[in-house]
Task: inverse folding
């Protein structure tokens, strides 16, 4: 009979030695306890620290168990050797091996080993046997170290087989020696270091299991070491065999080994083997987690293993994969539609798409049988249908045969028919779930004590009753006795027992020094091994929680009985310093309740998915089909377009024709509260794709109502497909495909439908004065009346409608010529309607929350800057940051329309009250004070009074700017009407938005006091700038809206129209600037009132700053204004106050060449001031040009025109000399020549003394004799002398260095 050495360890034996269960060991046979005899002998011989009776009895039982075993004598002899000497020699041996390596032939442990190590072991005593085994293990350790160091280099190294371990007869004794050595020499021998060389010996796995069984507390350490020391490419091998043997001895550790190997990406064949052997219940979730988890490293590692094992066809990996596929096939044959089947389908998809495993015929048949099942109408059924459809698309091998293809197409057709049935039953399921949940909550309330009885014995009388007697007295001893019985009693319970009030008990407890402490629940008293086992279990559970199995992503519903009880861990009374007690919990499974769990995260049904797949197939977007399949499956699988040809044909010709798709799409309900957090493919994706392919227009299916409903059901954060949906919808209304001339076009959203969304907002009262109560919207489809709840419109829906309006007008204007040419009449939204919308306010809100509306903010801003430049001014956006914030401290003041009226009516008598009201308005949000805007603006003229403090005017301006962030265009119209000049022709005239667009100069027809009030002038200039921008935009819009189709009449090209438009715009803007410049002139009233001179200085600064911005944005406008000219006394103001006046140097030569003497004088005067302000080389060259021009004109002009030109420029020549002394010589030469001419002219005049000789213009009134006249030439000579003296004094004798 063949002897069987190194028998495997039985699990019950390992568990008994691990738990020290002596009773179980007593019932084991000698063969079963053979592996752990070294451990039992040590336990029997070594004196224990525990001297209890239980320990003594256990020791006797062990001795009884070992009494009939002969091997015990050998173990005792091993324990009897001199371990101190052995430890010294072993330490020397280790040092020598580390220094010399495996080539060393000397040894401190054994000498004279000439007969061979196996014979020497057989003939030696126990002490030498220990030395031989340890020397052999150390030699193998050195070989393994050298092999690991040299495996990546060119140096050859290998692990030689051990002669000692080759004979099976000696293995058990060798194992006993190893166990005793590890136990007696723990400082020098580590079990993990010893186990590693044992992997390369004969029956190493069994030896390792015996060694670990004798030291069961090292099990976790050993398995971790074996896993972590494995190679990356090692699938199983001897290491996997050793771990399998350990798991067979202790099945409880299999979960830890599997988790550790999967986390470290080691030993994949072992992972599969352990899962199939010990964890078949979570086989599918675990493998799905490896292939589809969040850890990219783990996914790549396991997928590569499956792919390589499938291709290799041999080895441990292939064997494990074969067993796995057989187990999955068995499950596939028995699977039915549901949650488990969905998980199985995803695993097969992952194996095919990620791991590249080709399905066998049996697997194809089983998968097709499963995916074509008809599931129940539950959320799990819907999920199963979606996964099945995706698997049919992702795995074309399922349709390799005609009968398979026919079966799949029939199943899809059944889905199309039964979709409505699924939806209806899902709604019923949800209602049933809600009802069941309500019943569950009621039952739970009844099972728990959460209430109190408010009427004991039905006694509800409220009258006072007579007290029975005074509170009873008691002794402290009685209270102490009650506390000794139960220290967890409450004050109420103690008072009831003692028949006294709770306050009396509390006072006595304080006298006794008692305080309350919280106790702790303890499930039961734990032994040390229980604590260790629980720690291991918690660690495993923690690792499993980190792994996201695919079940986390399944939409499912389920019911489960939850066992519960509500024990209360009560406080106890004790002395300070007294520790709280530990109490075992009572029955924790006393009651149970039915818990209904339903995941409502997935709102998209398979109907939308079917529809979207059909849409993509119709439009030829096969890549989009692949993206949809991958998104539904939750994995990246290769979906090749060339493999979808047959499926595409089936969808487009047999299942979903394009007409069926469009007719079905408009009947799909919109997604309620649509936002970017709603996952999956939704109806909006289907509609967007159909609109993009113009399928609705092709089959004449109206879609406006559906889009309007979906817009009204949008919330933040905005779904990314909604802006794209609006864009394709607008294009479907206004643009026609070139292939279909008579194509059906969708209808635009009406103004009334848009008003309904804004009517119930904070500005509804403003842009819809005649507000009507909400009523259902009459839709155009079959004249049905459909209720759309827009009582509280969301910001998302308002922004989308605003985007629709702006984009509609942008596309309409861009395509106006083609629309008119084709004879189409399209809807145009009026300017009055657009002015009602709070465009600026909504855009400001979107800017503050760009995380929610980032995809819409940029296109909205672009359209706003294009069509409404008056709302995108830089100053407005800067003010929004200052006045549009919500961080101001609110002032507690009763703010009402009546209080505002009273404060402004008494503004001169009590400005403090007005300031308080304005501060209260300034502390509130702009939308809160907008209802008072009309009253506020009505009293703007009262702020213009002479006695109004400047502080009140500044507060008024700040409040106005705060209101300007809400509805600026409405505010501008109200302000213009309130500032109309009552003394002028504008009495009883109301300015409208259309009037301002036609004539923006209406803004400046205001009360003249505005031009001496700085804060209010800033408001007017803000309105003027916006009005000019609006007028420019309106003229451009008019040109686009009325294109030139026939080139007849006075205008023959668009360039001429554009030129006329630019001329009109320039005339308007230059007129506005001329008015503002005239406002800077000093009047007689300013001279009579000194305070007005200070106001005039401020007004000049404000207007100059405004002109500077205009000149910078439009340099051509600066040229136009100076060519038109303005009072020369303002040149000093404009040159010093407008920093951009230096641009005038570019066009002054052209101005000098004008024939008009006034313009030439103006040019010379302008150059003189610019020379003072900008003493640069360019200014000097222009000044020299002026002098040369004057010299030329001196010899060209007639005598009258000569005097008219040169007399006004004398002062300018002085300023030029002051600015540029090098020009003094040229100027003095010119003045001398001019003086000689004037002297000659004067002498001629005196010679004849005849008025008609020199002409009427040559004489001026004398300053000395008013009734007499003197020659102009004489006056000119006198002024030239004065000019020469000023040049000498200011230009030559000036000590300023240039």
Result:
């Amino acid at each position: 009979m063949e002897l069987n050495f190194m028998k495997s360890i039985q699990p019950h034996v390992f568990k008994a030695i691990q738990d020290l269960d002596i009773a179980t060991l007593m019932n084991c046979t000698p063969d079963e306890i053979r592996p752990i005899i070294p451990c039992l002998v040590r336990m029997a011989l070594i004196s224990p620290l525990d001297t209890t009776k239980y320990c003594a009895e256990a020791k006797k039982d062990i001795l009884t168990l070992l009494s009939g075993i002969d091997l015990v004598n050998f173990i005792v002899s091993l324990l009897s050797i001199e371990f101190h000497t052995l430890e010294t020699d072993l330490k020397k041996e280790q040092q020598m091996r580390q220094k010399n390596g495996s080539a060393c032939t000397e040894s401190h442990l054994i000498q004279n080993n000439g007969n061979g190590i196996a014979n020497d072991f057989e003939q030696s005593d126990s002490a030498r046997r220990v030395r031989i085994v340890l020397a052999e293990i150390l030699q193998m350790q050195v070989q393994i170290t050298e092999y690991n160091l040299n495996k990546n280099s060119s140096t050859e190294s290998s692990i030689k087989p051990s002669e000692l371990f080759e004979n099976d007869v000696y293995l058990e004794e060798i194992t006993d020696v190893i166990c005793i050595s590890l136990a007696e020499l723990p400082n020098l021998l580590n079990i993990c270091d010893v186990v590693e060389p044992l992997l390369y010996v004969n029956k190493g796995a069994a030896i390792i299991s015996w060694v670990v069984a004798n030291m069961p507390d090292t099990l976790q350490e050993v398995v971790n070491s074996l896993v972590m020391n494995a190679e990356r490419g090692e699938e199983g091998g001897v290491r996997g065999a050793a771990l399998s043997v350990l798991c067979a001895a202790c099945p409880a550790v299999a979960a830890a080994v599997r988790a550790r190997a999967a986390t470290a990406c080691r030993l994949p064949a072992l992972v599969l083997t352990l899962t199939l052997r010990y964890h078949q219940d979570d086989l599918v979730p675990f493998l799905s987690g490896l292939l589809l988890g969040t850890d990219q490293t783990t996914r790549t590692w396991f997928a590569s293993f499956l792919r390589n094992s499938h291709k290799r066809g041999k080895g441990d990996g292939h064997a494990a994969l074969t067993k796995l596929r057989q187990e999955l096939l068995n499950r596939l044959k028995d699977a039915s539609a549901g949650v488990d089947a969905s998980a199985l389908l995803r695993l097969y998809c992952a194996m095919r798409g990620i791991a590249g495993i080709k399905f066998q015929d049996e697997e194809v048949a089983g998968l097709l049988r499963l995916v074509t099942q008809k599931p129940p109408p539950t959320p799990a059924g819907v999920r199963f249908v979606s996964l099945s459809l995706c698997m049919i698309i992702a795995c074309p091998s399922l349709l390799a045969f005609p009968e398979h293809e026919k079966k799949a197409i029939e199943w899809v057709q059944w889905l199309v028919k039964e979709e409505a049935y699924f939806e209806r039953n899902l709604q019923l399921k949800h209602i049933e779930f809600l009802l069941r949940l309500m019943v569950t909550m009621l039952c739970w309330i009844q099972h728990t004590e959460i209430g109190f009885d408010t009427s004991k014995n039905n006694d509800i009388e409220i009258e006072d009753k007579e007290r029975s007697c005074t509170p009873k007295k008691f002794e402290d001893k009685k209270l102490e006795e009650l506390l000794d019985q139960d220290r967890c009693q409450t004050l109420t319970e103690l008072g009831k027992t003692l028949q006294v009030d709770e306050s009396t008990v509390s006072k006595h407890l304080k006298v006794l020094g008692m305080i309350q402490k919280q106790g702790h629940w303890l499930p039961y008293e734990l032994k040390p091994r229980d604590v260790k086992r629980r720690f291991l279990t918690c660690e495993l559970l923690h690792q499993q929680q980190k792994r996201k199995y695919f079940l986390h992503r399944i939409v499912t519903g389920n019911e489960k009985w939850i066992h519960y009880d509500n024990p209360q861990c009560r406080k106890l009374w004790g002395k300070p310093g007294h520790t709280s007690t530990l109490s075992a919990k009572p029955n924790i499974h006393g009651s149970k309740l039915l818990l209904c769990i339903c995941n409502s995260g997935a709102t998209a049904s398979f109907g939308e998915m079917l529809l979207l797949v059909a849409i993509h197939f119709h439009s030829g977007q096969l890549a989009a089909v692949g993206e949809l399949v991958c998104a539904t499956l939750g994995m990246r699988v290769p979906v090749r377009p060339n493999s979808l040809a047959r499926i595409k044909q089936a969808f487009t010709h047999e299942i979903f024709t394009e007409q069926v798709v469009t007719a079905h799409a408009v009947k799909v309900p919109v997604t309620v509260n649509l936002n970017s957090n709603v996952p999956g493919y939704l109806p909006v994706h289907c509609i967007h794709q159909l609109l993009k392919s113009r399928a609705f227009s092709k089959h004449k299916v109206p879609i406006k109502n559906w889009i309007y409903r979906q817009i009204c059901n949008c919330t933040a954060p905005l779904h990314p497909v909604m802006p794209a949906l609006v864009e394709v919808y607008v294009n479907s209304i206004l643009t026609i495909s070139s292939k279909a001339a008579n194509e059906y076009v969708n209808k635009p959203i009406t103004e009334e439908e848009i008003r309904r969304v804004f009517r119930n907002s904070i500005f509804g009262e403003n842009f819809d004065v005649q507000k009507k109560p909400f009523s259902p919207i009459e839709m155009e489809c079959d004249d049905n009346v459909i209720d759309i709840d827009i009582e509280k419109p969301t910001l998302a829906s308002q922004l989308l409608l605003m985007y629709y309006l702006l984009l509609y007008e942008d596309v309409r204007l861009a395509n106006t010529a083609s629309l008119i040419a084709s004879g189409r009449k399209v809807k145009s939204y009026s300017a009055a309607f657009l002015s009602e919308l709070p465009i600026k306010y909504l855009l400001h809100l979107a800017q503050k929350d760009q995380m929610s509306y980032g995809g819409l903010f940029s296109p909205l801003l672009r359209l706003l800057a294009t069509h409404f430049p008056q709302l995108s001014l830089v100053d407005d956006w800067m003010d929004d940051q200052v006045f549009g914030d919500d961080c101001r401290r609110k002032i507690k003041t009763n703010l009402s329309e009546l209080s505002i009226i009273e404060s402004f009516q008494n503004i001169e008598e009590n400005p403090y009250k007005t300031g308080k009201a304005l501060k209260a308005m300034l502390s509130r949000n702009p939308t809160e004070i907008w209802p008072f805007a009309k009253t506020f603006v009505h009293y703007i003229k009262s702020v213009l009074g002479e006695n109004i403090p400047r502080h009140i005017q500044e507060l008024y301006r700040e409040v106005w700017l705060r209101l300007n962030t809400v509805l600026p265009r409405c505010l501008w119209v109200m302000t213009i009407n309130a500032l109309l000049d009552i003394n002028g022709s504008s009495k009883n005239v109301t300015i409208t938005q259309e009037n301002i667009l036609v004539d923006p100069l209406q803004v400046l027809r205001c009360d003249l006091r505005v031009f001496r009030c700085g804060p209010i002038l800033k408001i007017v200039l803000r309105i003027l700038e916006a009005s000019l921008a609006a007028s420019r935009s309106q003229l451009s819009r008019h040109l686009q809206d009325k294109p030139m189709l026939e080139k007849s009449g006075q205008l023959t090209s668009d360039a001429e129209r554009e030129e006329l438009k630019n001329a009109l715009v320039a005339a308007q803007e230059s007129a506005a600037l001329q008015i503002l410049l005239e406002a800077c002139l000093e009047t007689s009233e300013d001279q009579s009132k000194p305070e007005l001179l200070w106001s005039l200085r401020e007004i000049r600064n404000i207007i100059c700053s405004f002109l500077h911005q205009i000149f910078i944005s439009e340099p051509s406008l600066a040229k136009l204004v100076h060519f038109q000219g303005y009072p020369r006394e303002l040149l000093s103001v404009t040159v010093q106050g407008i920093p951009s006046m230096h641009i005038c140097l570019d066009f002054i030569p052209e101005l000098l060449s004008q024939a008009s003497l006034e313009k030439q004088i103006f040019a010379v005067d302008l150059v003189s001031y610019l020379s003072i302000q900008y003493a640069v080389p360019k200014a000097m060259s222009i000044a020299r040009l002026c002098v040369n021009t004057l010299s030329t004109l001196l010899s060209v002009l007639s005598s009258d025109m000569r005097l008219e030109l040169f007399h006004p420029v004398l002062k300018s020549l002085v300023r030029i000399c002051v600015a540029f002394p090098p020009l003094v010589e040229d100027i003095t030469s010119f003045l001398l020549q001019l003086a000689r001419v004037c002297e000659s002219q004067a002498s001629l005049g005196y010679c004849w003394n005849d008025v008609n000789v020199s002409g009427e213009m040559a004489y001026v009134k004398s300053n000395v004799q008013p009734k007499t006249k003197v020659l102009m030439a004489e006056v000119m000579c006198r002024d030239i002398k004065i000019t020469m003296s000023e040049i000498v004094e200011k230009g030559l004798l000036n000590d300023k260095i240039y």
Observations:
- The chain is about 60% helix and 5% strand.
- Residues 402-447 form the longest helix (46 residues).
- The beta strands are 515-518, 520-522, 557-564, 571-574, 582-584, 591-598, 777-778, 785-786, 1259-1261, 1269-1271.
- The two ends are 126 Å apart (CA to CA).
